[in-house]
Every structure is written in C-alpha cells, then in structure tokens.
C-alpha cells in the first residue's frame, strides 16, 4: 500500500514524531495508518484507493449521508464550515486561507471546550 503526502504535517509513528513533506511517498503499515487517521495523504495504488473508499463509505454511513449528497439535514453549500467536524476536515476546509482560519478559530474558541491542537494550527494559519 502506498500514499503520497498532500500537505506537510507531523505525526507520531511508533511513538516517535515524524515530519512528512508534500510529494513524499509512504508505504506499508504507515500508509494505512495515515489514511485511517485522516492525514493529508492521497492513495497511490489500488490497495490504498480501496481502503480510502471503504473509509469514505463508512464515514458517510456514520454521518447519515448517501453518496453524492451533503451532510444529512443541511441545505447549505458544501463550502460552509461545520465547526463540529473532525480536525482534519476543518483543516482541509481552511487550507492555507488566513480568512477561513480566522473564522474557524473564532468559532472554535467560542465553544465550551475548544480543541487546543486545532486552535494552535488555526492560529498559525490565520497569522500567516
């Protein structure tokens, strides 16, 4: 199984921090782990694509979505932020856009229990 890193990030692999850079190819168990964790990676072979499709299908079922539809119960565009989404989903929505990062940061900090790791990442992007 192979995946290619889409955007730079750091992850713990076997309890050790490891930096990943865009374009880097990751193989084997680490590739599967990164896909399952929702890291910024893209499948690079049939095995990885099959796992990504399975994970996507499982996620859609968990969120009550049918293929080709937005989140159940929403009529707005997919371009709107769901502040209760997973950290990887929020960071994907933000991308490198400081304005989106500032919006997400404002909404996350307004929550009763803001996620500290998300706040840190959003602050870095918003200040860029």
Structure in words:
It contains five helices and five strands; from the N terminus they run ββββαβαααα. With 128 residues, the protein is α+β, with helices and mostly antiparallel strands. It folds into two domains: 2-62, no CATH class; 87-126. Strand 2 (9-13) and strand 3 form a beta hairpin. The radius of gyration is 16 Å and the shape is globular. The model is unreliable at 66-77 (pLDDT under 50).
Q: What can be said about the biggest beta sheet? A: 3 strands, antiparallel
Q: How far is it from the N-terminal to the C-terminal residue, by CA?
A: 35 Å
Topology order in helix (H) and strand (E) letters: EEEEHEHHHH
Query: Over all CA atoms, what is the radius of gyration?
Result: 16 Å
| Uncertain spans | 66-77
Short synopsis of the structure:
With 128 residues, this protein is α+β, with helices and mostly antiparallel strands. The chain has helices at 28-37, 46-62, 87-94, 98-109, 116-126; strands at residues 2-5, 9-13, 16-20, 25-27, 41-43.
Task: Quickly list its features.
single chain, 128 residues, alpha+beta, 2 domains, two-stranded antiparallel sheet, 16% strand, globular
Could you give the topology of this structure?
Elements: E1 2-5, E2 9-13, E3 16-20, E4 25-27, H1 28-37, E5 41-43, H2 46-62, H3 87-94, H4 98-109, H5 116-126
Antiparallel strand pairs: 1-4, 1-5, 2-3
């Amino acid at each position: 199984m192979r995946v290619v890193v889409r955007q730079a990030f750091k992850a713990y692999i076997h309890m050790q921090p490891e930096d990943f850079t865009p374009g880097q190819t990751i193989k084997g168990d680490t590739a599967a782990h990164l896909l399952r964790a929702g890291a910024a990676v893209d499948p690079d072979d049939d095995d990885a694509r099959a796992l990504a499709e399975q994970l996507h299908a499982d996620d859609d079922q968990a969120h009550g979505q049918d293929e080709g539809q937005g989140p159940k119960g929403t009529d707005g565009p997919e371009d709107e932020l769901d502040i209760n989404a997973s950290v990887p989903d929020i960071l994907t929505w933000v991308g490198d856009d400081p304005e989106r990062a500032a919006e997400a940061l404002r909404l996350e900090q307004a929550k009763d229990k803001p996620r500290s790791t998300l706040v840190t990442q959003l602050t870095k992007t918003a200040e860029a």
